[in-house]
Write a structure and sequence with these properties.
Blueprint (H helix, E strand, L loop, with lengths): L2 H13 L2 H8 L3 H15 L4 E4 L2 E4 L1 H25 L6 E7 L3 H14 L4 E7 L2 H9 L5 E6 L4 H10 L2 E9 L2 E5 L20 E4 L22 E4 L2 H11 L3 E3 L5 H4 L3 E5 L6 E8 L6 H10 L1
Parallel strand pairs: 3-4, 3-5, 8-9
Antiparallel strand pairs: 1-2, 5-12, 6-12, 7-10, 7-11
Helix pairs in contact: 1-2, 1-4, 5-10
Amino acid sequence: MTIQQLKYMITIAEKGSITEAAKELYISQPSLSGAIKDVEKEVKITIFNRCRAGVALTTEGMEFLGYARQVVQQMELLESKYINNLPEKQRFCVSSQHYTFGANAFVELVQQFGQERYEFILNETQTHQVIKDVRNRFSDLGILYLSKNNENVLMKIFEENNLSFYEIFSATPHVFLRREHPLAKKEKIKLEDLKPYPRLSFVQGTYESSNFAEELFSNETAEKSIKISDRAAIVNFMIGLDGYTISSGIFPKYLHGDSIISIPLAEDEIMHIGYILNKDKELSELGKIYIKALK
C-alpha cells in the first residue's frame, strides 16, 4: 500500500464517485477502480460499497479512512519540512453543533496561533456527523451537548465508537427571541407559552430524533416547526417570523446588537456542553487552547 493509493481512497470518499475522483486526480477510471481493489485485497476489508449514486464508505472503510488521513497528513508535514523546506503546516479541525460561541473561540484561536502555513477547519454540522468526524479522525475534537433526554443514547454511541465526553460548562435552558417578540417582557417562559410561535431547529437528516436534536425539549409537539441547516438563517427567522429556539442562552451581542435576547425557560433541564475525543488520543496543544477559549 502506497501513500498515493491512500490519497486515491481519500479523494474517492470525498467525491462519493469514482468517475468524479478520476477527473480530480487526472487518472483513468479503470486505474482508480483497480487501486481500490488492490488496497481492499491488501487490507482484507471492503472499503467502498457501490451504489446507484456512486460509492459509499462501509463502516470498516470509515475507520480505515480515518487512519489513512492521519498517514497522509503526516507525510505532507514531512515533505513540507524536509523536501520543500517550508515551515510546518498546522492543521486543526473541529466539528460542532451550531454554536456562535464556538465560532468566536475558533476566530480567537486562528488570530493568536495561526502560523505562516495552516489549515484550520470548523465544520458546523449535524450531531451524527460530529460523532462520525471524530471517530474517523477527520476532526481533532467535536463539540456537542448532553442532557437528561439524550445522555443515555449518546453515551452508548460514544462507547461504541471508542469516544470519551468531557464537559466544558453547563447551562440552564433559555429561549432565544427577537427583542420585540410578544413574550419578550416575561421574566421566565413556559413551554406552553411558546405554542403559538414557530419552533426553529437544526436539520438532523436521517437521524431526526430528540436524541440527536441540538435543541432542548425537541420531543414536545409543535404545531409550527421550521427546520434549517444554517445558523445565520435561524436568526433571520427569529426576527422575521417571531420564531424561537431553545438553547444555552449564550449569544454574543456584537453580532446582532440587542436584536436577539434570551429569557430563562421555566423547565427543569441542564445542557452539559462539552467535547468528544477518541479514547486513544490526547487533546492537542491547539485543542487545549481552543477549549480554554470556549470556557
